[in-house]
Write a structure and sequence with these properties.
By secondary structure, the protein is mainly alpha-helical. The protein folds into three domains: 125 residues, HUPs (Rossmann fold, 3-Layer(aba) Sandwich), CATH 3.40.50.620; 94 residues, no CATH class; 219 residues, DNA Cyclobutane Dipyrimidine Photolyase, subunit A, domain 3 (Orthogonal Bundle), CATH 1.10.579. 48% of the residues lie in helices and 5% in strands. The chain has 22 helices and five strands. Strands 3-2-1-4-5 form a five-stranded parallel beta sheet. Helix 7 runs parallel beside helix 11, helix 11 runs antiparallel to helix 12 and helix 12 packs across helix 17. The longest helix is centred in the middle third of the chain and has 24 residues. The C terminus is likely disordered.
C-alpha cells in the first residue's frame, strides 16, 4: 500500500506536461492529482476575456487527454481556490501542493497569498518552482542575465514516464464556458487556437520555414502574421516553455551553421538571433512586474504621476476623453492605419509588436489617454495577454518609465512605411478601398463623407508636438531625473550590448537613465 501523501499538481498558466518541474517532482514523491480550478473571480477581472478562456480550454483538453492516456485524468474544480483545496482535503486527507511560481495580475498575486496562508494554517507543504527565467525575490538586476543563462541553457525536463495516480473519485466539473463563469462578450472565431501540439507545430514551422525573414518582416502587419513565430499565446498559457524554445533554437542555429555557406538559407541566422533576443526580453519584462507588482496600477516612475487624467474607470473619463477612447477602441479615429490595426486586433486577437507599440503610443500621446484604461482594453483584445510584459510595455510606450527613449509614432509615416500599397488598410477599412495612391493613408485629403469614414479625431502632427513638449519638460526636472536613477537600478537592463539597444548620449549614459528598448514577444 502506498503511504506517501497525495501530490496535488496545481496547473495555472503552465498547461503542458513536458518541461514541467512540479509534475516531474510530484511523480517521484507519491500518487498524483492533476488539478485545474475554474476560479470565477479570475475570469471576472477587467483584463479577462472569453478568448482567453477558450484558448485555455483548448490547452486543457490536450493536458487531460495526456493524463487519461497514462491512466489518470485532469481534475477540474470550480470556485475559490482555497475552497477547492478544502474540497480536496475532505476527500484525500493531507496532501502536498506543487505548482510553478506565477507572475500574474494583482488578483492572482492576492489569491496566491491567500493560498499560502491557508497552507501554513493547515500544515500543507506548498512547493513552488521557478517559471522560465523570472527570479522571485531578485536581490539585484546586475545578476539577472546570469540567472537567465543558468536556467535557460539547461535541457528541458522530459515528461515523467510513470505516474501513480490517486485512486479515489473526486467530484470534477466539465469544461466551463464564458457564460458559466460570467465573462461578458464573445470569443473570437478567427483567433489562434490553443494546445501543445499546435505550439510544437508553430515552433517547428517558424524555425524551419516561416522565420527565414523574421528580422526584416516582423514590423509590417502585412508580413508579420506569417513571419513571426506566433508562439506568444502558447507561452502566455504555458503549452510550451521558453526553455523548450531556446533548446529548439540552439539546435536549429547549430544546424544552419553546419551547412555549407552556399546551401544556408539567406537571412535565417540573423532572424534566429533576433528571435533569441526576444526570448530574453520576454522574461526581462515579466521580471519588472515580479519585482514591483504595483506597476500594473501606477506609474513605475512616480515623477510622472498626474501627467494624464488617471481615471479609474471608463465612467470617470471626461466626455471628450470618452469620445477619444471609444473612437480608438472601435477603430474609428479617422487615421486609417490605426483603425486597420485596431479592427484587425478585434477580429483576430493578435497583431505584431510594432503595431502594438504604435497603438499604445497613439492612445497615450496623440489622444492623451492614461495607459491604465487603454491597457485594459488591449489586455482583453490580446490573445497572448501576459501581465508582466503587457504593463511594462504599456508604461514604456506611454513615456512614464523615465529610463526609455520617448518613442512617439507618426502614424501616417508608419502607414506609408509598413503598408505602402495600402493592402492592410483596404482589408480592414474597406470603406476606403476605392482610394488610390497616397490618399489611402490620408483620406481626409479626398474629402470623404464623414458618414462613410470620419475625419481625423486629432491632428496627428500637432498632438505629437504637444505630447513631446509635455514629456520632455518633465524629464528635464531634477526630481524626475533623480527618480529615473532609482527606476534604472530596480528595473533597467544591464546588457547594453544586446541587439535592440538604442544609441544614447554621454550625459544619459553617465546618468544611467536609459534602458535597452524591449519588445513584446511576437
Amino acid at each position: 500500500m502506498d503511504t506517501a501523501k497525495p501530490q496535488v499538481v496545481w496547473f495555472k498558466r503552465d498547461l503542458r506536461w513536458e518541461d514541467h518541474a512540479p509534475l516531474c517532482d510530484a511523480a517521484k514523491r507519491g500518487p498524483v492529482i492533476a488539478l485545474w480550478v475554474y476560479e470565477p473571480e479570475q475570469w471576472q477581472q477587467p483584463d479577462a476575456a472569453p478568448q482567453h478562456l477558450g484558448f485555455a480550454n483548448e490547452c486543457l483538453r490536450e493536458l487531460d487527454a495526456w493524463c487519461v492516456a497514462r491512466g489518470g485524468g485532469l481534475t477540474r474544480l470550480q470556485g475559490d481556490m482555497v475552497a477547492a483545496l478544502e474540497t480536496l482535503r475532505s476527500h484525500v486527507g493531507e496532501f502536498e501542493l506543487l505548482s510553478h511560481e506565477e507572475t500574474g495580475n494583482g488578483w492572482s498575486y492576492e489569491r496566491d497569498k491567500k493560498v499560502a496562508r491557508w497552507c501554513r494554517a493547515n500544515r500543507i507543504t506548498w512547493h513552488e518552482f521557478p517559471s522560465n527565467a523570472v527570479v522571485r525575490r531578485l536581490d539585484s538586476r546586475d545578476r539577472w542575465t546570469k540567472h537567465w543563462n543558468s536556467r535557460m541553457t539547461n535541457a528541458p525536463l522530459a515528461a515523467p514516464t510513470h505516474i501513480r495516480w490517486v485512486n479515489m473519485a473526486i467530484p470534477s466539473v466539465q469544461e466551463l464556458t464564458p457564460t458559466a463563469l460570467g465573462i461578458p462578450g464573445d470569443d473570437k472565431p478567427r483567433r489562434l487556437k490553443g494546445g501543445r501540439q499546435r505550439a510544437l507545430g508553430m515552433l517547428n514551422s517558424f524555425l524551419t520555414e516561416r522565420g527565414q525573414y523574421y528580422r526584416s518582416e516582423m514590423s509590417s502587419p502585412t508580413t508579420a502574421a506569417t513571419s513571426c513565430s506566433r508562439l506568444s499565446p502558447h507561452l502566455a498559457w504555458g503549452s510550451i516553455s521558453i526553455r523548450e524554445c531556446v533548446a529548439a533554437l540552439i539546435r536549429r542555429r547549430d544546424a544552419l551553421r553546419a551547412m555549407e555557406l552556399s546551401a544556408r538559407p539567406d537571412g535565417f541566422l540573423a532572424s534566429i538571433k533576433s528571435f533569441e533576443a526576444r526570448l530574453h526580453w520576454h522574461c526581462h519584462f515579466i521580471q519588472k512586474l515580479e519585482d514591483e507588482p504595483a506597476i500594473e496600477f501606477r506609474n513605475v516612475h512616480r515623477g510622472f504621476d498626474g501627467l494624464r487624467h488617471e481615471a479609474e474607470s471608463i465612467e470617470a473619463l471626461t466626455p471628450d476623453e470618452l469620445r477619444r477612447y471609444r473612437a480608438w477602441c472601435e477603430g474609428r479615429t479617422g487615421l486609417p492605419f490605426v483603425d486597420a490595426c485596431m479592427r484587425s486586433l478585434a477580429a483576430t486577437g493578435w497583431i505584431n509588436f510594432r503595431m502594438r507599440a504604435m497603438l499604445m503610443s497613439f492612445a497615450s500621446y496623440n489622444l492623451w489617454l492614461h495607459w491604465r484604461l487603454t491597457g485594459l482594453h488591449l489586455a482583453r483584445e490580446f490573445i497572448d495577454f501576459e501581465p508582466g510584459i503587457h504593463w511594462s510595455q504599456a508604461q514604456m510606450q506611454s513615456g512614464v518609465t523615465g529610463i526609455n527613449t520617448v518613442r512617439i509614432y507618426n502614424v501616417v509615416k508608419q502607414s506609408i512605411d509598413q503598408d505602402p500599397e495600402g493592402v492592410f488598410i483596404r482589408r480592414w477599412v474597406p470603406e476606403l478601398a476605392h482610394l488610390n495612391g497616397a490618399l489611402i493613408h490620408t483620406p481626409w485629403r479626398a474629402d470623404i463623407d464623414a458618414s462613410i469614414y470620419p475625419a481625423p479625431i486629432v491632428d496627428h502632427m500637432a498632438s505629437m508636438r504637444e505630447a513631446k513638449e509635455k514629456i520632455y519638460s518633465l524629464r528635464k526636472s531634477q526630481t524626475v531625473r533623480a527618480e529615473s536613477k532609482r527606476v534604472y537600478e530596480k528595473h533597467g537592463s544591464r546588457n547594453p550590448a544586446r541587439e535592440g539597444t538604442p544609441k544614447i548620449t554621454k550625459r544619459e549614459r553617465d546618468a544611467q537613465s536609459r534602458e535597452r528598448q524591449g519588445s513584446l514577444f511576437d
